[in-house]
Amino acid sequence: MQVIISMMRFLSRMLPVFLLLFVAGCAGGLRMPEDIFAPDARTGVRTYYGELPCAECRVQQLTLTLFDNGTFRLNRVYSGQRNGRDRVEADLGRWKQDGERIVLQGSSDFPLQFRRVSASELKLLDQMGHEIVSHLDYSVFLTSIPDFLPGPYLVQGMYCERGGNAYFRECRTGLEYRLVFENPDPSVSRKYAALVTSPGAEVMAALRARFMLRRDSGSGSDNLMVRKFISFLPGGSCAP
Q: Domain named NlpE C-terminal OB: which ranges (predicted)?
């Protein structure tokens, strides 16, 4: 009897502890659904990297960066091609979330699509958005440090001049960037002036440029450093 009484006293003293642990466990178990493509809190971007199978090369090194303004930048390196050279492709555009998929609309006729496997893994889908039936790995993984993928990129968009500065509204992202010329070329302004009928009017142009990243911004809307101004394309527009 004395043993039973001692046990009851022990349990009565421990009951508050058990209740506290139970409540803490319940609180820890209640979690809000995560934003599966939430950007890095410090920079506003997420970067994924993976080495994917490649039919025409040894391996495809794919880097994908998603910006919190709905734009993306993509870099593909096709290593070990049959000619012994690596081929690099860079693309940019807009991305959207569709359930547990992300859809990238860039320069290709077909959007590039990925499915979320986990908080740190995306899996490449086929052109129709279906699973790739293969025993090979088509996953890319979240990196600890974002890669802003500055380029260079071959881009088309609407060029204009305002207040002594040149601006470029890139077609695929829809964003406007201030242009900085790596090698100043006064002939660009002269050609622009000859093409427009009113100040600040837009003229389509093609150029090769890289992003100049500001330390205080991860939005992807930075300046563009023009490495080569290719040409004006009078009469062109960003309309599909």
A: 155-238
> Do the domain assignments include residue 4?
no
Per DSSP, what are the bridge partners of residue 91?
74
Distance (Å, whole) CA 6 – CA 56? 77
Whether this prediction's pTM lies above 0.70 is answered by: yes
Whether 225 is in a domain gets the answer yes
Kindly state the helix (H) or strand (E) to which residue 229 belongs, with its residue range: strand 223-232
The total of structural domains in the chain comes to 2
Q: Decide: helix, strand or coil at residue 16.
A: helix
Measured in whole angstroms, the distance separating CA 173 from the mean position of its chain's CA atoms is 11
Distances (CA, A) of 108 to 87, 105, 143, 224: 17, 7, 25, 22
Q: What is the CATH number of the domain that holds 119?
A: 2.40.128.640
| Percent of all residues in the chain with a pLDDT value above 70, rounded to a whole number | 78
105 within 8 A of 99, measured Cβ to Cβ: no
The DSSP bridge pattern shows strands 176-181 and 223-232 to be: parallel
For residues 37 and 63, the model is more confident at: 63
Looking at the domain assignment, is residue 34 inside a domain?
no
